[in-house]
Amino acid sequence: xxxxxxxxxxxxxxxxxxxxxxxxxxxxxxxxxxxxxxxxxxxxxxxxxxxxxxxxxxxxxxxxxxxxxxxxxxxxxxxxxxxxxxxxxxxxxxxxxxxxxxxxxxxxxxxxxxxxxxxxxxxxxxxxxxxxxxxxxxxxxxxxxxxxxxxxxxxxxxxxxxxxxxxxxxxxxxxxxxxxxxxxxxxxxxxxxxxxxxxxxxxxxxxxxxxxxxxxxxxxxxxxxxxxxxxxxxxxxxxxxxxxxxxxxxxxxxxxxxxxxxxxxxxxxxxxxxxxxxxxxxxxxxxxxxxxxxxxxxxxxxxxxxxxxxxxxxx
Length: 315
Hints:
This protein is mainly alpha-helical. The protein has twelve helices and no strands.
């Protein structure tokens, strides 16, 4: 039979168990910090984190400013609210479709392409209507109260005020290419579909790039980058609106940030292949440092095992 601890021995056993648990927690914390430190030195993770930072700068902008931007372009508050809802609906449907597509297509390239299109859509938020009018040869200046007062994309309110209203039907006699609401609908659907890749594929792409063993700590650090960027983006657009009196400049800047976040990830597979094939030489110092780190970890593990064995023998 196993020896039973007496009252005094019970206290000693409990203290030993507490010390063992503390040692385990300390070792886990040390390993976590070491892995995070290595991740911050990993060029693949840092490029992906910088990309996510740029994407997170612009991602919350439509949800925050689209209703007010719609009013600035001459639309009603109800139409602006509907645009935000349309972004959410199209985003939900697109997640299902992109999930299926990600099983057949290259995830990183699918992710990058969606971000580039998403950034362009945001940059052209208030320009879809004039671009459509130019493509289909519509002359929208005839609907302006003062055609020489301002450009087409800044004169939506004047355009709507000059349109005759049919009293019997209540419909605006305005061509679709000259209707700013149609341009905003185009933007909302395109942004909702392409921004779904950012929410859906971020974790999958991160796991593909770094591996499942590094996913937990890398995703935690990535959330830190995303949180800081989300805190910075909306105030910047608000300050730009106060400075310029329009959301065109703010949406343009954040759209460029999102498009850039997708473009900067395209070279990653090529660079990784070149590194594995040895076309880009790796310095000998880096290899020596990695071998030294591995040997240090092995020595630390052996020392900790010896200490634990000695403590048990003493008890």
